[in-house]
Write a structure and sequence with these properties.
Distance between the termini of chain A: 7 Å
CATH superfamily of chain A: MetI-like
CATH topology of chain B: MetI-like fold
CATH class of chain B: Mainly Alpha
Largest sheet of chain A: none
Number of helices of chain B: 13
CATH superfamily of chain B: MetI-like
Largest interface: A-B, 47 and 45 residues
Structural class of chain B: mainly alpha
Distance between the termini of chain B: 35 Å
Strand content of chain A: under 5%
Number of strands of chain B: 0
Shape of chain A: flat
Structural class of chain A: mainly alpha
Strand content of chain B: under 5%
Number of domains of chain A: 1
Number of strands of chain A: 0
CATH architecture of chain B: Orthogonal Bundle
Mean pLDDT of chain B: 89
CATH class of chain A: Mainly Alpha
CATH architecture of chain A: Orthogonal Bundle
Oligomer: heterodimer
């Protein structure tokens, strides 16, 4: 196990190096000169030169990269050129909003997706199976920004039940907070639920056809016990680890969802930063999301090996 | 007696045994109603996109202040938008942008991804490790976030959105091709090709590539669906097709501001994206089943 862990972590080093190169390159490829943008409308050459020197933009690109990596390793992600705030504090301010949204989305996705997958596998070939498959196709094919707009139209404009936009922190008023995040969380969870449903169905069908389930049935166990205690326990292991990898979908989805529902989270931060050419913020947000994704990938791999005794050797 | 046996027609089972894999896959695909429905809808959308100027009598760009935000009627089936343009006309013309973006961006991803995957999977060693880590790094950056950053760098336009989506989708094809090549290169027929002295490039292109095409075809079909959503998302954010040219994503962006008074502006373009993406997903699922050797 330790050897596996060591190898897996060693593999991460070159991946993280390339991630840092890609993210640093974003600054180079984004249009416009940051120093000119920061200098304001007057664009005084002296001011531009001073900004270039201050942010080391006048140094060769490899040197800029080394300084940037040094900063990242010490927790310094630079400063937002537009808001004049450290990127780290901006991210720490916005991250809880997206995490709340993401967590609610995962709860919705797991509840709906896993249940639908189990029912679909157990009732294979019935109307339930058909309905669950239609649901999965719906989830995979619906653009989340359209679903968001339609939900706003139905629940905010027509019925007036939920706020169309805005965000209330959980610590301020939990009811208002839930009301402001339930629609975006559903929009985010919808596509992931569809993926989880498909994984669950496939894993459950495999488990239900295995020898140990046949043995459990032969022993005379109730079908409910066979499904829930024997088949589901084994089937859910790969589903949970595969589900963890859906974080990328969640973060990509958050970009549009937060834009539609005007939620001041991570997604909105990066869109605003891209449009304002706020390089440091773009780099910081992509770096944090990529690191989160890689870490979750590693944890999912470890969890998979831990719960599967056959892989431990 | 021997002559009679030799001249007798081959039994039907033997006919089936000599059926080509492509024909067998097509026959199996034709039996899948979902896939056939998806294919039919895609064909209809392609025909509509090609024949758009003859399908509707209205101009997709010309504004008419006399018909601002008119509800659906016999004259304007899908209603009109905030500057009096016919929504049905813009949905039909918008199909061009979406279908083109879906197909061209995945063609870009295939053009870059398949050769890289072939090299990594067939040659192995340092190149494989290098391409593998670069692919991992790109996959670690969320798809849309990377596409947004690239589209912003290239400048907002449909062509640049396609390039951004194509580059972002490339690692999926690198990884898939590499995995498929690793599985196929140990097969006996590849060994045989190597034994008779074929050069490596010939083995890769003539003996390996055709055998991994089914997997690539399935992934490409499903990726077109994802690319259509990505293009709509970029246009929705203002990084894809630029107004006044019609695109489903930019139509949804405009519709958001008139949700109270003109909800039809949001319903139809969104429905068009949904139906197109659903059709590609149905076709992709059908292709995957039809090309799966276990289904034989």
């Amino acid at each position: 196990m330790l050897t596996f862990l060591g190898k897996r972590i060693l593999q991460l080093i070159p991946t993280l190096f390339f991630v840092s190169v890609i993210i640093f390159s974003l600054q180079q490829i984004l249009p416009g000169d940051p120093a000119t943008i920061m200098a304001g409308e007057e664009r005084d050459p002296a001011v531009i030169a001073q900004i270039r020197h201050q942010y080391r933009l006048d140094r060769p690109i490899p040197i800029q990269y080394v300084y940037w990596v040094k900063g990242v390793l010490t927790g310094d992600l630079g400063e937002s050129m537009r808001i004049k705030q450290p990127v780290r504090s901006l991210i720490l301010e916005k991250l809880p909003v997206t995490l709340q949204l993401g967590l609610m989305a995962i709860v919705i996705a797991v509840t709906v997706g896993v249940s639908a997958g189990i029912v679909s596998a157990v009732k294979k070939g019935t109307v339930w199976d058909y309905a669950a498959n239609v649901f999965a196709l719906w989830g995979l094919s619906t653009p989340n920004f359209w679903l968001g707009i339609m939900l706003i139209f139905l629940f905010s404009v027509e019925l007036g039940w939920l706020p169309a936009s805005g965000y209330v922190p959980l610590t301020e008023d939990w009811r208002q907070s839930l009301a402001s995040t339930i629609m975006p969380a559903f929009v985010l969870g919808n596509a992931i639920a569809a993926v989880l449903m498909r994984h669950t169905r496939s894993a459950m069908l495999q488990a239900l056809g295995s020898d140990y389930v046949r043995t459990a049935r032969a022993k005379g166990l109730f079908e409910r016990a066979v499904v829930l205690k024997h088949a589901m326990r084994n089937a859910l292991t790969p589903v949970i680890t595969l589900g963890a990898l859906e974080l990328g979908t969640l973060l990509s989805g958050a970009v549009l969802t937060e834009q539609i529902f005007t939620i001041p989270g991570f997604g909105k931060l990066i869109v605003d930063a891209v449009f304002n050419r706020d390089y440091a913020v773009v780099q910081g947000v992509v770096l944090v999301t990529a690191t989160m994704y890689i870490t979750l990938n590693l944890l999912a791999d470890i969890a998979y090996v831990l719960v599967n005794p056959r892989l431990r050797s | 007696m021997v002559d009679a046996i030799l001249s007798a027609p081959l039994p039907r089972a033997a006919d089936a045994a000599i059926e080509s894999p492509a024909r067998r896959a097509l026959r199996r695909l034709a039996r899948r109603r979902g896939a056939m429905l998806g294919l039919a809808v895609i064909v209809i959308f392609v025909l509509l996109a090609v024949a758009a100027p003859w399908v509707t009598p209205y101009d997709p760009i010309a504004q008419s202040w006399m018909t601002v935000r008119k509800a659906p009627s016999a004259v304007h089936w899908f209603g009109t938008d905030e500057v009096g343009r016919d929504v049905l006309t813009r949905v039909v013309f918008g199909a061009r942008a979406s279908l083109m973006a879906g197909v061209i961006s995945i063609a870009i991803a295939l053009t870059i991804g398949v050769p890289l995957g072939l090299v990594a999977g067939y040659l192995g060693g340092f190149l494989d490790a290098l391409i593998g880590r670069l692919t991992d790094a790109m996959l670690a950056c969320p798809f849309l976030i990377l596409a947004i950053a690239l589209a912003a760098f290239l400048g907002p336009s449909l062509g640049n959105a396609m390039i951004a989506i194509g580059i972002t989708a490339t690692p999926i094809f690198v990884r898939l091709t590499r995995g498929q090549v690793m599985a196929v290169k140990v097969e006996d027929y590849v060994e045989a090709a190597r034994a008779v002295g074929n050069p490596r490039w010939r083995i890769a292109l003539v003996h390996i590539l055709p055998n991994i095409l089914p997997a690539l075809l399935v992934q490409a079909t499903l990726s077109i669906a994802a690319a259509i959503i990505a293009e709509a998302a970029l246009s929705f954010l203002g990084l894809g097709q630029q107004p006044p040219a019609p695109s489903w994503g930019s139509m949804l962006n405009a519709a958001q501001r008139f949700l109270v008074n003109a909800p039809w502006m949001a319903i139809w373009p969104g429905l068009a994206i949904f139906v197109t993406v659903l059709s590609f997903n149905l076709l992709g699922d059908g292709l995957r089943d039809a090309l799966d050797p276990r289904e034989r």
